[in-house]
Amino acid sequence: MLLREVVEEITEKLPPEVSVSPESIVRKVTQIRDQLLRNYGPAQRQSGTLCVYIDLHEGQSLYYPLCPPDGVVEVAILNTAYGGNGEWVRIPHRQFDERTQKPYYYFVAGKIGLYPPPTHFAAGGMKIFYVPVLKPLTTEDMDKPTGFDPDFDMLLVYGVLNDVTIGPMSNQWYEKYQTLLSEYISATNGYERYVVKERW
User: Fold this and answer.
1) Domain-wise residue ranges, the chain
2) pTM across the whole model
3) pLDDT digit string (tens) for 29-56?
4) In what order do the strands lie in the sheet with 111-115?
5) What is the pLDDT of residues 87-123, one digit of tens each?
6) DSSP 3-state assignment of 110?
7) Cis before 116? omega within 30
8) Of residues 1, 4, 2, 7, the one with CA closest to residue 24
């Protein structure tokens, strides 16, 4: 469905006493879409992982990740940045655990940080694997897809209706939302969701 069709479905199903602007509906569609993808997104999103390389500089701990921080899946460093033999090493995500001397990455103010800072220059010494993050929808996107699974766009409709209505109608939309959510989880959940594969 196009965003316009999702907004029309929501508007048609709203009770007469509930008035919501198209801008507000679009904002709520974005919130529901992002929440669903974040919490129940299909394993297949991992197959769409992109990679970016960043040069590491001696003594520099903070870098611009060139991708949204909330899309980062894995980070690996070339161990020559620490005097190693040129192998790639996957490092964990931690927030400021300076008790360890093993490298890890963290986020601060939109930047990605490495601890400890590299001891040598390494061209393309950090690989960041990330999934693309969808931009928020606006009323200018009415003739574009929502960015959600087209087989389950009604999940967005029921999610917004559940969010903006109260009383008995809210119960009706909640039940429809939960039923469709269960179908969505079944359709996108699989064994491969729990398998971490090497990407290099």
Assistant:
1) 3-45+133-191, 49-130
2) 0.60
3) 999 998 888 777 655 455 567 889 999 9
4) 62-63, 111-115, 104-108
5) 999 999 988 766 777 889 999 988 999 999 999 999 9
6) coil
7) yes
8) 7
